[in-house]
């Protein structure tokens, strides 16, 4: 909406850290954007940005204004979504911040289900490290966060928490394939494929290895879970995952999943939620309801 344009200009400049880059994003000339910024600053009587060699950065007054702007933009999205709801036309955009464990199997299916019913809704999904999920909610770059083993929950309104045991993934011909569950020391006897350092799975594995005095011989490391899974097909390799990210057709890929004994690793938790005190836009709220219902039905 046109009355929101000044807010959008300031939010984009702050996000890009550069008037030129913001102008490219907004499809206007840098000089025109700069004139509009100066006009807003003149009206407020303060500088919103400090000009620095690398571009611009928010002043103290600018930080206060930006928080207000992001709240206003979020509120407008919620209003537009509710208005669309009145006519039965679900529209709007849902922004999701998620750790890697949700991206390969769970979220694609959930989004497909939702858009089959409400094709007017669009999605933006960003992979975030478990330590940055809360910040994505605070700065309103995400409506909803889905994180395995998050590091911060101070501003995170937890809507759903689901336990997940840690699983070993390996080729169906692997020497351990005939076992029902495994001790971590048995896995340590083989080369392993580990997820990236920011992964909650990696954190659980490393904590258990230190406690048990084990050396996990990582031959491959990657933050791409599908790549890690494919590497499990190599002879004697072992990777690790949680149930929500294990595909139904694992056997058809000649792979098997076996749980690690809870005496070694008790497992971790998936957290789903949004920013505390925030009223979500209708589309985001309904998608969140779908996600929570599916998780509760599948794992509780």
Structure description:
The protein is of the alpha/beta class. The chain has three domains: 2-65, Winged helix-like DNA-binding domain superfamily/Winged helix DNA-binding domain (Arc Repressor Mutant, subunit A); 90-163 and 269-299, Periplasmic binding protein-like II (D-Maltodextrin-Binding Protein, domain 2, 3-Layer(aba) Sandwich); 166-266, D-Maltodextrin-Binding Protein, domain 2 (3-Layer(aba) Sandwich). It has helices at 5-16, 19-26, 30-44, 60-86, 106-117, 133-138, 184-187, 200-212, 225-231, 282-299, and strands spanning 49-52, 55-58, 92-98, 121-127, 144-148, 156-164, 167-171, 181-182, 192-195, 218-222, 238-241, 255-260, 268-275. The strands form three sheets. Strands 8-12-7-11-9-10 form a six-stranded mixed beta sheet. Strands 4-3-5-13-6 form a five-stranded mixed beta sheet. Strand 9, helix 8 and strand 10 form a beta-alpha-beta unit. The radius of gyration is 23 Å and the shape is elongated. The two termini are 43 Å apart. The mean pLDDT is 89.
Map the helices and strands.
Blueprint: H1 5-16, H2 19-26, H3 30-44, E1 49-52, E2 55-58, H4 60-86, E3 92-98, H5 106-117, E4 121-127, H6 133-138, E5 144-148, E6 156-164, E7 167-171, E8 181-182, H7 184-187, E9 192-195, H8 200-212, E10 218-222, H9 225-231, E11 238-241, E12 255-260, E13 268-275, H10 282-299
Helix pairs in contact: 1-2, 1-4, 2-3
**Biggest sheet descriptor:** 6 strands, mixed
Could you say which overall geometry the principal axes of the C-alpha atoms support?
elongated
Read across the widest sheet, the strand sequence of neighbours is 8-12-7-11-9-10
Helix content: 40-55%
């Amino acid at each position: 909406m046109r009355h929101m344009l000044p807010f959008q200009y300031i939010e984009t400049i702050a996000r890009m850290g550069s008037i030129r880059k913001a102008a490219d994003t907004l499809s206007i000339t840098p000089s025109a954007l700069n004139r509009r910024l100066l006009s807003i600053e003149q009206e407020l009587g303060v500088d919103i940005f400090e000009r620095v060699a690398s571009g611009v950065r928010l002043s103290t007054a600018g930080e206060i204004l930006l928080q207000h702007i992001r709240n206003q933009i979020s509120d407008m999205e919620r209003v537009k979504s509710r208005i669309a709801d009145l006519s039965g036309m679900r529209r709007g955009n849902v922004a999701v911040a998620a750790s890697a464990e949700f991206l390969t199997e769970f979220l694609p299916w959930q989004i497909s289900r939702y858009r089959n019913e409400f094709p007017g809704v669009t999605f933006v999904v960003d992979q975030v490290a478990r330590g940055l999920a809360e910040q994505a909610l605070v700065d309103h770059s995400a409506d909803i966060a889905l994180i395995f083993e998050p590091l911060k929950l101070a501003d995170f309104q937890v809507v759903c928490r689901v336990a997940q045991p840690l699983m070993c993934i390996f080729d169906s011909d692997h020497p351990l394939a005939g076992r029902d569950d495994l001790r971590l020391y048995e896995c340590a006897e083989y080369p392993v494929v580990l997820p990236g350092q920011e992964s909650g799975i990696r954190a659980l594995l490393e904590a258990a290895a230190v406690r048990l005095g084990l050396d996990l011989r990582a031959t491959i490391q990657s933050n791409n879970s599908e790549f890690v899974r494919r590497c499990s097909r190599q002879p004697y390799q072992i990777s690790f995952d949680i149930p929500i990210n294990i595909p139904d057709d694992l056997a058809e890929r000649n792979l098997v999943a076996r749980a690690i004994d809870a005496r070694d690793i008790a497992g971790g938790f998936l957290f789903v939620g949004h920013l505390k005190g925030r009223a979500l836009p209708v589309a985001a709220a309904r998608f969140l309801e779908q996600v929570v219902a599916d998780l509760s039905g599948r794992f509780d």
